[in-house]
Amino acid sequence: MYDQVASNKRRSLALIAIFVVLTTLVVATILYLLDLGFVGVLIAVVVSVGSAWASYWKSDAIALKMSRAVEADRHTYARLHNLVEGLCIASGLPKPRIYIIDDVAPNAFATGRNPKHAAIAVTTGLLEKMNRVELEGVLAHELSHIKNDDILVSTLAVTMVGLITLAADISIRMMWWNGGRRGRNDQEGGAAPFLAIFGLALLLLSPLLARLMQFAVSRRRESLADVSAIEMTRYPPGLISALEKLRDDTTVVHASSRATAHLWIEQPTAQIEEEGRLSKWNRLFDTHPPIEERIEALREL
Question: Which of 142, 188, 222, 231 is catalytic?
Fold first, then answer.
């Protein structure tokens, strides 16, 4: 397990680098098609590095805001605070900020840039539907993401994927309606037509590439966090029972989106027809391993 954690840390650095490179390529392509040439490439580097830096400092706040999370009052949610404190003492972690999301669907996520600047958000539905040991299992899972250093790349993905998708979408719309300057100069010959075709292909494919990287952020980390949570609580039945309740629950988190779906302990969007009309589309972009597989893996421990 410790080898997996170390491997995940290396992958995190690689994914962050890939996000920055992809953002640079997308922005550089847009500026090239607007006829800014190599000056546009320099601007693109500044924009991508700047966006990554801003995401490092602010993406956790963005994720919490998108999810409509509010800080959990110490007295109103005393049990929640006590469980988190006990798990943090046992695992040697600093206590993260704790947030509440007013939603009937049971779910939770962790966010932040490092263990000293982390936050956990849980829905009111989770607090209502889980008993003490089940809630402890879910909280241990989220704290495991913090301990395993999963939260930085997961949180960065919220803003970086959104930025890439938005930039590509806006540029394609601009070129569709009035055409890029570079496109109008393609009749001059040379490499311009080929670069323009490459640029258009990159803009069309970049949202998909960003989504694929989002999958890479989440799927293996969820299973690893499950195992780490059991090591933290020393009680597999608690998390197993919690995952079974999450599996059987058909409510969806109304404050979620595909941009933040990879953060949650369970896929927060509709997955079956009873949960919503977009279930088939959502399954194509599922960022989590099947919950039944996670349960079976925990039963073998």
Answer: 142
